[in-house]
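Page 42, continued from yesterday. The earlier attempt failed because a stray header line got pasted into the input along with the sequence. Redoing it now with the clean sequence only.
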Amino acid sequence: MRVFVLGGTGSIGSAVVRELVARRLEVLGLARSDAAAKLGEFGATAIAGNIAFPPPWIGKLAGIDAVIHAACDFSTDMEAIERRLLDALLPALARQANKPRFIYTGGCWLFGATGDEVATEQTPFNPLSAFAWMVPHLQRVLAAPGIDGIVIHPAMVYAPRGGVFHREACDAIAAELGEWARGYALDQRLSGAKAQRELGWRPKHLDPESEIATLA
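This time it went through. Structure tokens are written below.
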């Protein structure tokens, strides 16, 4: 099975690549030249390129069984970059001999602040205005012909290299980071029940406060 990963050296994508390689799948990853070596360390094969300019690499996708999109451009042009990526990638996948699965990462910020409520897949989106463009993009993936689309919204908790943010700190730097800081500061609770039920996911880190204290 051949799996193509976008964002395979990021905090989510790198964990995905390592897991796929451990399961003895053939993993290809899109990477700029400075990240190609890292993919090789994981046991994946690098395809040179970046999401902002698909033409040089889109034709190299052959015999792909699945694509996992965990990449993001953090510039002010991220919406246009993502649109151009889907313009190229969706037709390329539809031309595959089989019907590839396209796993597309949405975002927990699309649900907005949930407070004490626990958001599920039935909860209406309430995105921050700067990220509202993501909603029609994920709807486009789910409606695209010739692929088996699925959207997963990873929740943000913490990561070994960072990812823990206090609301006061985010408010203090919001003037510089804009909506990204406001996203990190959202008060959210999200349910993982569907992922556990349908995907067999079993959470391993059930005591986040003590683990965050260890990281700190």
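Notes: Residues 117 and 189 are 7 Å apart (CA to CA).
Reminder to self: strip header lines before submitting.
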